[in-house]
Amino acid sequence: xxxxENNAFVVTGGASGLGASCVKELLRRxxxxxxxxxxxxxxxxxxxxxxxxxxxxxxxxxxxxxxxxGLETAVQKFGTLAGVVNCAGIAAAxxxxxxxxxxxxxxxxxxxxxxxxxxxxxxxxxxxxxxxxQAPFNADGERGCFLNVASVAAFxxxxxxxxxxxxxxxxxxxxxxxxxxxxSLGIRINAIAPGVFGTPLVVQMxxxxxKSLEAQVPFPKRLGKPDEFGRxxxxxxxxxxxxxxxxxxxxxxxxxxx
Length: 258
Description:
By secondary structure, this protein is α/β, with parallel strands linked by helices. The chain has helices at about 15-30, 40-50, 65-80, 105-130, 160-180, 200-205, 205-215, 225-240; strands at about 10, 30-35, 55-60, 85, 145-150, 185-195, 245-250. α1 (about 15-30) crosses α8 (about 225-240) and α3 (about 65-80) packs parallel to α4 (about 105-130).
């Protein structure tokens, strides 16, 4: 296993939402975290409250120079990079053709793909080059691991989620080929596909909308708790035999078309 304790991990999108829950769990298990995010205020606040174990870097995951600078800071501070959790992403809803005949914005589609899919790959490829040069962390020869965040929308996208579902399906699709390639270097990669979680953004929705979402979950009939997501992320990091796969955490929900 790659122990979390005393090792360093990059979490993109770690300043809020599910990314922040992952950061919290890594810190609980005595890990060190480098947060890549554009949310400066939230990121700095987490850093301020964990000065010895957290570094915040304002990073645009779609920009090579920005990511490279953040990774350089991580290695300079902590020496090695045990893993990366790619949580950075955006959600956008738009029909291909609206009821009034408006056509889906091409720029809007590109933006979602750029941040969610290309941004994930950008961080992964640059971090992998660093991991490949590291000494192994364990007897298996493991040099690091990646956990990329997909979504149940990769499998059951709803109407209006063409861009979002495509971006998350791309994350699912690249998991196995990258695992097969990087395995020879001692680097693992998995993806996690969360369902509907009670993040600060979601819990601000009208109660009727929340109840509707909860009703679609077979069991337990509620939104996922962010700390449940964080614990799974940490468990997947520490379990070296988890590789090349996509793991759902969704209460068995299968999203309806609407």
